[in-house]
Design goal:
Blueprint lengths: L8 H11 L2 H27 L2 H5 L1 H13 L2 H11 L7
Helix pairs in contact: 2-4, 2-5
């Protein structure tokens, strides 16, 4: 039989979240955001070189709109995590 002192996965995650100070959390988030933007822009530049892009100005415009704004969706949870209080949620 398991003892009552074993922490559940949610409790361990909560303790880890509480252990990360806000300054460290913002530093980690800033580095992750910078990495996200660099990787996103490199992928967008690589995909923009596709031959099908050059054939249609409408497709090219749509691609650049999605590529230019698309990094915001993956960045939103990261920014929310960065702005949490010390206690977690």
């Amino acid at each position: 039989m398991l003892s009552g002192n074993i922490l559940t996965q949610c409790q361990c995650r909560g303790l880890l979240e509480a252990a990360i100070r806000p300054r460290i959390r913002k530093l980690i988030g800033a580095i992750a955001l910078l990495a996200l933007v660099i990787v996103w822009s490199l992928l967008a530049m690589a995909l923009a070189q596709a031959v099908a892009m050059r054939s249609s100005p409408v497709l090219e415009f749509a691609f650049y709109v999605v590529a230019g704004l698309g990094w915001v969706l993956p960045a939103m949870p990261l920014i929310a995590w960065m702005s949490r209080d010390r206690g977690g949620a």
